[in-house]
């Protein structure tokens, strides 16, 4: 299966369980792997046979900067659901949400989740 990659997209959002997270907000980094058949796009050089990663970027931006979620699991699910419902040609998506400014004392790069969702599943 072929895939389109969107890595390290950065958006500011207000997701979290603690009140200061929903009030002050923080950066979230999103990675996506979009699994679909790209043979026709490669053969014909026709964007209509693929999907626009610019449009996917805008969807991820809208979801991440939109209605706040308490859990990054729910944010990842919301992103996956919206992308899958927009493009019927996608077989599945992997969404990784990284939260580098989580309110946890200590030294770390980020906390995160990674989910896989399938079309019609």
From TrEMBL:
The protein's Enzyme Commission number: 4.1.2.25
Enzyme class per UniProt: lyase
One of the Pfam families matching this protein, by short name: FolB
Record domain Dihydroneopterin aldolase/epimerase: where: 4-117
Keywords: Folate biosynthesis, Lyase
Keyword Membrane among UniProt keywords: no
Any one GO cellular component localisation term in the record: cytoplasm
InterPro entries named among the record's database cross-references: Dihydroneopterin_aldolase (IPR006156), FolB_dom (IPR006157), GTP-CH-I_C/QueF (IPR043133)
Annotated pathway: Cofactor biosynthesis; tetrahydrofolate biosynthesis; 2-amino-4-hydroxy-6-hydroxymethyl-7,8-dihydropteridine diphosphate from 7,8-dihydroneopterin triphosphate: step 3/4
CDD domains per record: DHNA_DHNTPE (cd00534)
GO biological process, one term: folic acid biosynthetic process
GO molecular-function terms, A-Z: dihydroneopterin aldolase activity
SMART domains named among the record's database cross-references: FolB (SM00905)
Superkingdom of the source species: Bacteria
Record field: catalytic activity: 7,8-dihydroneopterin = 6-hydroxymethyl-7,8-dihydropterin + glycolaldehyde
Matching NCBIfam families: folB, folB_dom
Purpose: Catalyzes the conversion of 7,8-dihydroneopterin to 6-hydroxymethyl-7,8-dihydropterin.
Record PANTHER family: DIHYDRONEOPTERIN ALDOLASE 1-RELATED
The family this protein is said to belong to: Belongs to the DHNA family.
The protein's name in its UniProt record: 7,8-dihydroneopterin aldolase
Gene: folB
């Amino acid at each position: 299966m072929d895939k389109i990659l969107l890595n390290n997209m950065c958006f500011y959002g207000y997701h979290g369980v603690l009140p200061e997270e929903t009030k002050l907000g923080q950066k979230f980094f999103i990675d996506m792997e979009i699994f679909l058949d790209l043979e026709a796009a490669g053969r014909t050089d026709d964007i209509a046979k693929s999907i626009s990663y610019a449009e996917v970027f805008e969807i991820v931006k809208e979801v991440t900067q939109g209605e706040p979620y308490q859990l990054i699991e729910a944010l990842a699910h919301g992103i996956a659901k919206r992308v899958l419902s927009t493009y019927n040609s996608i077989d599945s998506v992997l969404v990784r949400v990284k939260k580098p400014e989580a309110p946890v004392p200590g030294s770390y790069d980020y906390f995160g989740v990674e989910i896989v969702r399938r079309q019609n599943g």
